[in-house]
Design brief:
This protein is about 35% helix and about 15% strand. The protein is an alpha/beta fold and about 325 residues long. It has two domains: about 25-200, Orthogonal Bundle (Lysozyme); about 215-320, Lysozyme-like (3-Layer(aba) Sandwich). Strands 7-11-10-13-9 form a five-stranded mixed beta sheet. Strands 1-2 form a two-stranded antiparallel sheet. Strands 3-4 form a two-stranded antiparallel sheet. Strand 1 and strand 2 form a beta hairpin. The longest helix has 20 residues, at about 115-135. The two termini are about 20 Å apart.
Length: about 325
Amino acid sequence: MTCRIERWGVTAMVLLLSLSVLPAHAARSVATQSAVGEALDLEDLFFEASEAFGVPVEILMALGYTESHWKMRDGAPSIDFAYGIMGLRERDDIDTLGFAAKLLDLPRERLKREPRANIFGAAAVLEALARNYYQFEVESVRELPLEAWEPVLRQYSGMPDATTYVLQLYTPIHRGIDTMNDAGQRIHFGPVKIDLASFEDIEPQDKVFSQDYPPAAWDPAASCNYTWSERPASYPIEMVVIHVTEGSYAGTISWFKNCSAGASAHYVIRSSDGAVTQMVGNNAIAWHAGNWDYNTRSIGIEHEGFISECSWFTDAMYRSS
């Protein structure tokens, strides 16, 4: 598939290779189910879900933006099996999709395909996780400041180290977002002043940088997802293979650290600011091309986003790549 890209007055055709439950309130569950198929503006759905479950609308909107740019994608999963606008995951190690389905008393398939069900499902999960984490009654969830949702969002992500995920989610809240996604839906929220100093303890103080490409952070993939080698002595490095993650930056990094992935790339690049993370050393063989010969002779670079949605491919990403 190709994505037509115009930058700096030059048009190019770039080939992009894809590589225990807390009870919900019955009244809200019934109301959600009866109206789940209605077509509403997504912004309205976020406000309705916030009102129903007490989760700040900024958290819901930023979560949807980070996971999907507010796109459902007809029930198709991301690289790490996250579904819909809110990235509800369905895997052996994390099943927020199933949790949401149980809380709302809805079939999983509806949460995968219907915006209202997906957004309300995520809000229900976040509320349940917050109540459990803080041992609150339901109404007390509404009193939590934005910063207090950080540990809840970590649990929601299902990632062993969700620092990148959390920081990527809070940044657009603090700076504000006003853009359009590829479906023509306006994405607008923030800026909201956040005490970013409260996140200093979750930002890695001893961040390790790549030896191959010093601007990149070093966050290694699981050794079960690549092959150790001593390139270029063992194999010549002759090409760079460009991929699109088909998922979020943080989700892709976390997935490559999971042996269930059976895949990896040398580098992952973030859409919003062009941040680069190296996950496999250039001397080693990342499993990214679906072809052993190509893998042995190439460097694989994953770009955050979805192959059919050009809005992910920002100037900052191009400059880093």
